[in-house]
Amino acid sequence: MATNTPRQIEAVQKTCRILEFLRDRGGAGVTEIAEELDISKSVVHAHLATLNDENLVVKDGHTYSLGLKFLDIAETVKNRVAKHEIVRDQVRALAEDTGEVVHFGAEENGRIVYVAKSKGEAAVETASKVGKRMPMHSTSLGKAILAEFPEDSIDRIVEQHGLPKQTERTITDERRLHEELDTTRKREYSIDDEENIPGVRCIGISVSAPEVGVLGALSISGPSQRMTDERIENELHEAIAQSANVIEVNSRYQ
After folding, report:
1. Using CA of residue 60, residue 62, residue 68, residue 71, what is the dihedral sign?
2. Name one GO molecular function term (predicted).
3. Helix (H, G, I), strand (E, B) or coil at 28
4. Considering the entire predicted model, what is its pTM?
């Protein structure tokens, strides 16, 4: 019977699992990889030998780790989203000016992916890191981007990923999410009101470019006692909007 599921190649899936394991561990040997991933040692060795030939992994003694070729791949991907040098500079400057954590993220397959991050002097530590994927409905980055999407696109993302509860304040009702996105459009910025991490509030704003559409979003995150409504409206909104505009203007000339 015909299905709509694309054909999946098991060998490629195993390669991806091995690469992700090396990323998470920082390096590992054949035996460790085979035992942890429940793949035969001979298969793991064959995958690693091929990856080593392609410079995607490097071998030091009996230990394999990710190769520097991923740096070139990463730079290409980051510049596909927006001119990364400009994004990096604006994220860093905004973090220095506000003292908080600043992120730039982009949507991929209905998730937010962190593309850049910088911490100001007063920033609180978070588990976020470049490359990490997060839900859209509970983050200011995600809500800022969702507010730019047509309703049917929002509904598809909700159908695909649901509205999982991250904290006691996470919006888990689709009607409430649409109301929140309407509010975001009217005030021109989004708010994560402790919806992703308890005690942390964030402001987000979308970043777009002509003929391309939404490139991603910027956010500023900090402890709730500092991220008051007054500070967000009177200080942070203007600062983040200016940074978004710099990225947008420069993205026209990619």
Report:
1. negative
2. DNA-binding transcription factor activity
3. strand
4. 0.77
